[in-house]
Amino acid sequence: MMKTSRGPVRDALIRLEHEGLVVREPNRSAVVASMTVDDVEEVCSLRVSLEMLALRYAIERAQDEDFARLHRANELLRDCLSSDFSLQKAVDLDLQFHEEFVKSARHNRVLAMWRSIKPQIWFLIFSRNAFALENFEEAVRSHRELIDQVRGKQDEEGRRNLQAHLDIAYATLISLYTKIQSADENVS
């Protein structure tokens, strides 16, 4: 229908499989992965660990250009929320901020690991319309504080803020996916 050869489609499916977004079986079709509460737990706990490690290094290594990128990413999210925004755009911009935050740690392996789970984080949030406007407005405030805490080398305050920020997302996703999994089990 789209006149795309099989090679690029196969390559795209392999990439999506590596990102945990597609499940393929030999000689079978590919299907979108369904996420369970256990999957949410694994992705979120890994994200928290990576971002907390990034915080440690960002406090030591972040430079002026990192702070400029963080401020710009947070402003883009704030501006998006003040217009007629889509959930997809808000999720993209929120994760853009977090990627810039992890980059500011200047730790290539932490960044590579974070990027490897980013598609799953995006999928968890977006696929279930998990967050409302107020979640993103709170994120903008928390991001702003985190930037100031990293710049001020306020390790303990930064840890508390980042932990609380990620815990809100984590709790929202766990609650949502628990309800969905319970509903699915009741149907079966």
| N to C succession of SSEs | HEEHHHHHH
Coarse structural class: mainly alpha
Number of strands: 2
What does the average pLDDT come to?
88
Give the class-level CATH name of the largest domain: Mainly Alpha
The proportion of residues forming helix, as a percent range, comes to over 70%
Outline, from the CA principal axes?
globular
Number of domains: 2
What's the CATH architecture name of the largest domain?
Answer: Up-down Bundle
* Uncertain segments: none
Under CATH, the homologous superfamily of the largest domain reads GntR ligand-binding domain-like
Question: Going across the major beta sheet, what is the strand order?
Answer: 1-2
Report the major sheet: 2 strands, antiparallel
Architecture blueprint of SSEs:
Blueprint: H1 6-18, E1 22-24, E2 30-32, H2 37-61, H3 64-81, H4 87-103, H5 108-127, H6 133-151, H7 155-187
Antiparallel strand pairs: 1-2
Helix pairs in contact: 2-4, 2-5, 2-7, 3-4, 3-6, 4-5, 4-6, 6-7
